[in-house]
Amino acid sequence: MSDAEGDDPAVDSRKGEYRRRALIGGLALAARTVLSQLVVLGGTIVLARRLSPSDFGAFAIIQFALSFLTVFGDAGLGGALVQKKTEPTREELSSVFWVQLGLGAAVLVLAAVSAEVLRLVWRDLPPSAPWILRALAINFAFVAARAVPMISMERELLFVRLALIDLVGSLSFYLVASGMALTGFGIWSLVAGVLAQGVLGTVLAFSMRPFAPSLVWDGAAVRRLLRFGVPHQLKHVVGFAGSATTPLLCGALLGAEAVGLIQWAQQTGFFPVRLVEIVSRVSFPLYSRLQDDRAALTRQIDRSVAISAAGAFAFAAVVFALGPSFVTIVYSAKWLPALPMLYLFAASITVGIFVPLVAPALDALGKPKLVLAVSVGSTLAAWAVAAPLARFYGPLGFVAGSVGLMVLGNVVMAWIVRRELPTLRVLRPFVAPLAVALVVGWAGRRWALPHVGGPLGLTVAIVALLVAFIGALFALDRALLDELRLLVKKRAA
């Protein structure tokens, strides 16, 4: 960036507006997350109590099969439009819309034709599995149809609208799924929830960001977008291949129940990822607008990592302190076999937050191939160790190997990011939260856990541990407190 540009009031004003929108968007997404997680918590408890681990495992396997059909998603066109420096033309948006619609139609046809293959690969799936796959494919058609309005809102940092769409989607899924589970619909409860979420999300997307596609096709524009989009999307393809080890290998070797226990432990242990998703979702369009200002970009990453690390370690401390009571009281004793796996996932995500936080920065800088290279290496390693670990050590051995490789991948990513952004503080945001989490987790395990006998005692213990964690962290890390104060002052301004 030239000196003249750096002194341009108009440029500074635009950057300030981008940061303001990102901040408001982050707060809106955070508020959405708080509200939706109340619904998610209630819905998850109902579903976990009414459905069996086998139901969850079968649903996860069928969703994986659908993901296999949709693995190329939008060919990266959505990310390319968000990253694009200039405003996309109507011809570009219309062309992307028709590409998305074509992908949705193709997936519907593929699902209808290939659904019967499911029970040849996973023999313990229920007889209804092929029809569940076909029903879930309908939801992908809705997702494809609303892609352009969602992309436009993300590019314009209109995260308040996106937050509302997400909130309504979560509400519709858990209300419909929980209601049907209570009335005995079993695994079809989850399918109905997904379809309700898809329909309402599409209606809201077009209501909040109206878009009527033109009957045009700009092939040259699509090819330009694909130059960035394909490497960007390949990262998601590789991520899909890495996540496939659980439903594909564990499902075939250990059965649907093992997949259900692993999936439940992962979803519960990766709860802090919801905070990371908020930060990451806001970060990519913001980083794309700041890609020419490395200093501002580095400051934003520092702040994102520090706040997310604090949340991840606080969650891990509570899980280690109250794990047995938490699982039994909230989800019922049938999920206790997954408790050791929950510990591993909760511990690993304290480090695992790093890649999703810094990957958007590399994408914004036009270097998605670096993230892709790390993802490819991690995926190949996961496939190399998954089968023998699952076969000889069962679900726990498989999870231990998976989280170990995830931690290694984050370490490699830290080294790469330091080369691109030398002033980025990689280790510092993790030191104080780690120390506090160890002390609070040990103290809670020794003194709080023995006195937890019901929902009220569990709630009091969780609140007490979180208060202790926050107080100790701010006492130990004054810089984080200053960051939060600055955040509040900016919001007030």
Name a few traits of the molecule.
493 residues; mainly alpha; 2 domains; 83% helix; disordered N terminus
Structure summarized in a few sentences:
The chain is built from 21 helices and no strands.
Describe the model.
The chain has 493 residues and is an all-alpha fold. It folds into two domains: 24-243, no CATH class; 255-493, no CATH class. 83% of the residues lie in helices and 0% in strands. The protein has 21 helices and no strands. It has helices at residues 3-6, 9-50, 53-69, 77-83, 90-114, 118-121, 129-145, 147-155, 159-182, 188-208, 219-243, 245-254, 256-269, 273-289, 294-331, 339-352, 354-364, 368-420, 428-448, 455-476, 478-492. Helix 4 runs parallel beside helix 8, helix 4 (77-83) packs across helix 11 and helix 13 (256-269) crosses helix 16. The radius of gyration is 23 Å and the shape is globular. The model is unreliable at 1-6 (pLDDT under 50).
Radius of gyration: 23 Å
Number of strands: 0
Low-pLDDT residue spans = 1-6
The biggest beta sheet, please? none
Question: Can you tell me the overall shape?
Answer: globular
Number of domains: 2
How big a fraction of the residues is strand?
under 5%
What is the typical, i.e. mean, pLDDT?
Answer: 80
The end-to-end span amounts to: 28 Å
Q: Portion of residues in helices?
A: over 70%
Structural class: mainly alpha
SSE arrangement, N to C: HHHHHHHHHHHHHHHHHHHHH
> Helical segment tally?
21
